[in-house]
TrEMBL record:
The protein's name: Segregation and condensation protein B
Chain's role: Participates in chromosomal partition during cell division. May act via the formation of a condensin-like complex containing Smc and ScpA that pull DNA away from mid-cell into both cell halves.
Alphabetical UniProt keywords: Cell cycle, Cell division, Chromosome partition, Cytoplasm
PANTHER family reported in the protein's UniProt record: SEGREGATION AND CONDENSATION PROTEIN B (PTHR34298:SF2)
InterPro entries assigned: ScpB_csome_segregation, WH-like_DNA-bd_sf, WH_DNA-bd_sf
GO CC field: cytoplasm
Organism: Syntrophotalea acetylenica
Any one biological process term the GO annotation gives: chromosome separation
Quaternary structure (record): Homodimer. Homodimerization may be required to stabilize the binding of ScpA to the Smc head domains. Component of a cohesin-like complex composed of ScpA, ScpB and the Smc homodimer, in which ScpA and ScpB bind to the head domain of Smc. The presence of the three proteins is required for the association of the complex with DNA.
HAMAP family the UniProt entry points to: ScpB (MF_01804)
Gene this protein is translated from: scpB
Pfam families from the UniProt entry: SMC_ScpB
NCBIfam families, A to Z: SMC-Scp complex subunit ScpB
Family as reported in the entry's similarity comment: Belongs to the ScpB family.
Length: 194
């Protein structure tokens, strides 16, 4: 298979894939060496960058996925009829605790939040943003929670190392605090259908 055909097949596979696809999966489907797939993906990424297309080839959660450019988000929101996925402040707090302290027990989470978090944890499990990572070796054997692959996909991360450091959170500037307040106000407004 020549390079142009390989790139065309990769585009078709990535376009139709429901989520990120690993290089090994792509190589197996096309029946070529993984190094050839990796090279072709690098070429596609560079081509998309130069051509300023409406999408990019993103590497996240141990795979590759075609995604719309972030600067086009407002236009996409206008077109979409369904409401985008939202996460409550309580769920976001719980998710942050799990992401930074994993594996974490429900007691750990509730100690840090100061409130019962059972319902929030169940909601995050239902959304598949967290997973049960095992049981803690102590009396009662409480469940341990960790983030999932869907968590990485949802937030556009390749791995947990891409999370901002806790120090970065404490260094919010006045401008970013204003943006955060604006975002919270916008997300709390009732949504109306056009």
């Amino acid at each position: 298979m020549d390079t142009a055909d390989l790139r065309a097949v990769l585009e078709a596979l990535l376009f139709t894939a429901p989520g990120p696809v690993r290089i090994e999966q792509l190589a197996l489907a096309i029946e070529v060496e993984p190094r050839m797939v990796a090279k072709a993906l690098d070429e596609l990424r560079e081509e998309y960058r130069r051509a300023r297309r409406g999408f990019v080839l993103a590497e996240l959660a141990d795979g590759y996925q075609l995604r719309s450019r972030p600067e086009h988000a407002e236009y996409i929101r206008r077109l979409q009829v369904s409401r985008p996925a939202r996460i409550s402040r309580a769920a976001l707090e719980t998710l942050a605790i799990i992401a930074y302290r994993q594996p974490a027990t429900r007691a750990d989470i509730e100690y840090l939040r100061g409130v019962d978090s059972g319902g929030v944890i169940k909601s995050l499990l239902d959304k598949r943003l967290v997973r049960i990572a095992g049981k803690k070796d102590m009396p009662g054997r409480p469940l341990l929670y960790g983030t999932s692959r869907e968590f990485l996909e949802f937030f556009g991360l390749r791995s947990l190392e891409d999370l901002p450091s806790l120090k970065e959170f404490t260094e919010l500037t006045a401008e970013s605090e204003t943006l955060l307040l604006d975002f919270e106000a916008e997300s709390s407004e009732p949504q109306t259908e056009p």
